[in-house]
From TrEMBL:
Its main location: membrane. This is Potassium transporter. Belongs to the HAK/KUP transporter (TC 2.A.72.3) family. The chain crosses the membrane at residues 51-69, 93-114, 183-201, 213-230, 242-263, 290-309, 321-341, 361-380, 387-408, 414-436, 448-471, 491-509. It comes from the Eukaryota. Residues 60-358, 359-452 form the K+ potassium transporter integral membrane domain. It is a multi-pass membrane protein. Keywords: Ion transport, Membrane, Potassium, Potassium transport, Transmembrane, Transmembrane helix, Transport. It is found in: Cell membrane.
Length: 643
């Protein structure tokens, strides 16, 4: 009987405790609600202006100087790398030409210009742009800081998937496990790193002009070129484009006209290479050597991945017009003309074309883009799975063929971009791992808002004149650095604003939609929350007037909040109070979190966290630099976090 009574008492205590926890949770939600209402107030209409035909042609011409330089120089060395040991049969030239024609048709034209370039993030291209689109259409981000209010941005375009569709099932499958999200991120980072490796190793191509040129000269010329390009960047894409566009335009006209001349003079029969039959005959005749020669054919499409990354500078239609009606025909004429010349002059392949390192990173970037595009077609465009399958087959078959071929040439220089990409991937992985752990630490160690408000309007502290901007990665709750700060220094400013600088999976956030402001608790507490939202393109520039913009939005919030209230004097009093506090001084309170590996961690983890991440954190720009926080108003709160 006693046991039954004890059990009943214990059960009653558990019920009371559960009710208490539930009541506290409900109170917490009321005190710190999402900013959906504030976001709706900022939502506005945004529509890009159309372009006239004259402006479109002007931009198409200008894009030649920025986008197509790599593709335009490929004819210099493709045939030499395809036949490094010489040409034994004229039919092999026809087969190689057929491979080049259909490579240019399938990958640059159909895959990139017609399909992939449409998967842009409001005009932004590249692997990260695809990832940002996927993050908006599926919950695949490893840092779960998404909020409903983010979707109200004009640049946050997304579509809903019908229940039960193949796309909805794919989305659910992708979201169900962390390992799949990590695999997706790995593909994105791999594509990004291979692009870096491709760019950095490409400077070795300078040596193709003169094979006897020493490595020291190559390095020196590379440095001069890089310095020259970086020094011109501040003039903007417009002026740089106008500088190089005439040069590239003349170059394409030259190789196109030369190709037409060679076709007419040497052998018009090379045009039979437009029949894909000669691809089959080429592999049948050459066998393994023909397969390995794909590493040379691949060079005909290098620069295609840069075409997608550069669409941020020009309208999509301008790039499509330039490639489809000018670049593509000129390239076809150039390769056909070279083939016509080589059919009758098989021994002149060394004199006519230059050698080059096999460009390995290129095909891996293309493969990563293809895999991500399959998800884009399913989740974003909602294409039928049969169309997705057709796209996958048409792109993966040639790209995997190229990949298998370049693997044979790893020892001929293809390892350079792979090593560079592997190092870049390792660095990015370490940075991402530590960043996720830091965010998890912030979430688990945040202070309850109900506890803060339970301290009363003074917060149990001395409220000194001024405005305190407390920075946090959290869009709700009180950050750990705040409790750490008031524990060591039992005083806080008379006005406290919790500032969350948030980076969204969009290319930019319009200035008028950047700040969301809300009040926390009763007016007597003088506590607010502000979420400052930025896109990935916004990271490239400093926000020189961040403090004034934030405070102006705070003042505007108070005006809007009391617009419908009859107590106008109260509004004026609060506005005057805030202005007085601003004059007393604004202090930026930021957390200086040091991440360290736990005692007993294995050696690679200690090296990654204590040395690699520590070095990266030291050299990377902090929020105080990006937001242009004056050094004399910055207060860092130090804390150590062990992973």
């Amino acid at each position: 009987m006693a046991e039954r009574v004890e059990g009943s008492v214990a059960q009653g205590e558990n019920t009371i405790e559960e009710r208490h926890v539930g009541a506290m949770w409900e109170l917490e939600q009321k005190l710190d609600q999402p900013m959906d209402e504030e976001a709706n107030k900022l939502k506005n209409m945004y529509r890009e202006k159309g372009l006239s035909m004259l402006m479109l042609l002007r931009l198409s011409f200008q894009s030649l100087g920025i986008v197509y330089g790599d593709l335009g120089t490929s004819p210099l060395y493709v045939f030499y790398n395809t036949f490094p040991d010489g040409i034994s049969d004229s039919e092999d030239v026809i087969g190689a030409l057929s491979l080049i024609i259909y490579s240019l048709l399938l990958i640059p034209l159909i895959k990139y210009v017609i399909i992939v370039c449409k998967a842009n993030d409001n005009g932004q291209g590249g692997t990260l742009a695809i990832y940002s689109l996927l993050c908006r259409h599926a919950k695949v981000k490893l840092i779960p800081n998404q909020q409903r209010s983010d979707e109200d941005l004009t640049t946050y375009s997304r579509t809903l998937l019908p229940e039960g569709s193949f796309a909805a099932k794919t989305k659910k499958w992708l979201e169900s496990k962390e390992s799949r999200k990590r695999a997706l991120l790995f593909i994105v980072l791999l594509g990004t790193c291979m692009m870096i490796g491709d760019v950095l190793s490409a400077t070795g191509g300078i040596k193709v002009i003169s094979p006897k040129m020493s490595s020291d000269i190559v390095v020196l010329v590379s440095i001069i070129i890089l310095i020259g390009l970086f020094s011109m960047q501040h003039y903007g894409t417009d002026k740089v484009g106008w500088l190089f566009a005439p040069i590239v335009f003349i170059w394409f006209l030259f190789i196109g006209a030369t190709g037409m001349y060679n076709i007419c003079k040497h052998d018009t029969s090379v045009l039979k290479a437009f029949s894909p039959t000669y691809i089959y005959l080429y592999f049948k005749r050459r066998g393994l050597d023909g397969w390995i020669s794909l590493g040379g054919i691949l060079l005909s499409i290098t620069g295609t991945e840069a075409l997608y990354a550069d669409i941020a500078y020009f309208p999509l239609l301008a790039i499509q017009l330039a490639f489809t009606f000018f670049v593509f025909p000129c390239l076809l004429l150039a390769y056909c003309g070279q083939a016509a010349y080589l059919v009758n002059n098989k021994d002149h392949y060394k004199d006519a074309f230059y050698a080059s390192m096999p460009g390995t990173a290129v095909v891996l970037v293309m493969l990563a883009t293809t895999l991500l595009m399959i998800l884009i077609m399913l989740l974003v465009w909602r294409c039928h799975w049969i169309l997705v399958l057709i796209f996958a087959v048409l792109t993966l078959v040639p790209e995997l063929s190229y990949f298998s071929a370049v693997i044979w040439k790893i020892n001929q220089g293809g390892w350079v971009p792979l090593i560079i990409a592997a190092i870049s991937l390792l660095v990015m992985s370490v940075w991402h791992y530590a960043t996720v752990k830091k965010y998890e630490f912030e979430v688990h160690s945040k202070v309850s808002m109900s506890w803060i408000l339970g301290l009363g309007p003074s917060l149990g502290l001395v409220r000194v004149p001024g405005i305190g901007l407390v920075y946090t990665e959290l869009a709700s709750g009180v950050p750990h650095i705040f409790s750490h700060f008031i524990t060591n220094l039992p005083a806080i400013h008379s006005v406290v604003v919790f500032v969350c600088v948030k980076y969204l999976p969009v290319y930019t956030v319009p200035e008028e939609e950047r700040f969301l402001v809300k009040r926390i608790g009763p007016k007597t507490f003088r506590m607010f929350r502000c979420v400052a939202r930025y896109g990935y393109k916004d990271l490239h520039r400093k926000d020189d007037d961040f403090e004034n913009k934030l405070l102006n939005n705070l003042f505007s919030f108070i005006r809007i909040e009391t617009m419908m209230e009859p107590e106008e004097d109260e509004e004026e009093d609060e506005l005057q109070y805030l202005k007085t506090c601003k004059e007393s001084g604004v202090v930026h309170i930021m957390g200086n979190t040091v991440v360290k590996a736990r005692n007993g961690s294995w050696l690679p983890k200690k090296v990654a966290i204590d040395y690699v991440y520590a070095f990266l954190a030291k050299i990377c720009r902090e929020n105080s630099v990006i937001l242009h926080v004056p050094h004399e108003t910055l207060l860092n709160v130090g804390q150590v976090f062990y992973v």
